[in-house]
Design brief:
Mean pLDDT: 91
Number of strands: 6
Distance between the termini: 31 Å
Strand order of the largest sheet: 3-2-4-1-5-6
Number of helices: 5
Oligomer: single chain
Length: 154
């Protein structure tokens, strides 16, 4: 299973929306996709409940946030279930974020192209790199610009 985490210590950067869009696109390729909603607001869980209540099919399964000390075990237990696990992290630098990063194969850092959000994205990079040093592995990552103006070439 390939684990992709969406991380940024700032809230409102587009982590949940970006994670949802990636999961939906992967599901269209017939990949087995799971999502792990680690945000305390549980927006993905709510989305899944609304969809089910409306009788609409689910393109993938959303798992609710586990207890912090159960996260690593939960990710490991899903290994044979999915081809991809998309992890939507909370907008803080909490320990649960470090745990999730330690099990990630790739991390995307969504941010808006503003000075404040760029500083927070840099904090996310430092967290990913320090987690990689902690587990003695490089965690690949990329910056993902969100809410960009179509008039500007990125």
């Amino acid at each position: 299973m390939y684990v992709i985490a969406f991380a940024n210590p700032k809230g409102g950067t587009g982590k949940t929306t970006s994670a949802l869009l990636l999961a939906e696109q992967l599901a269209t390729t017939n990949a087995r996709v799971g999502m792990l909603d680690c945000d305390p607001n549980q927006n993905l869980v709510s989305w899944q409940e609304q969809r089910k209540a409306g009788g609409r099919a689910m393109p993938f399964t959303v798992h609710a946030r586990p207890a912090e000390d159960e996260l690593v075990e939960m990710i490991d237990s899903l290994d044979d279930t999915y081809d991809f696990l998309i992890v939507d992290l909370e907008g803080t630098a909490a320990q649960i974020v470090t745990f999730a990063l330690s099990r990630s194969d790739f991390c995307l850092i969504p941010f808006e192209p503003t000075p404040m959000e760029t500083r927070q994205a840099a904090r996310a990079v430092k967290l990913i790199e320090s987690t990689g040093r902690m587990i003695r592995q490089t965690i690949p990552y990329a910056l993902l610009m969100t809410r960009t103006n179509a008039a500007f070439q990125t």
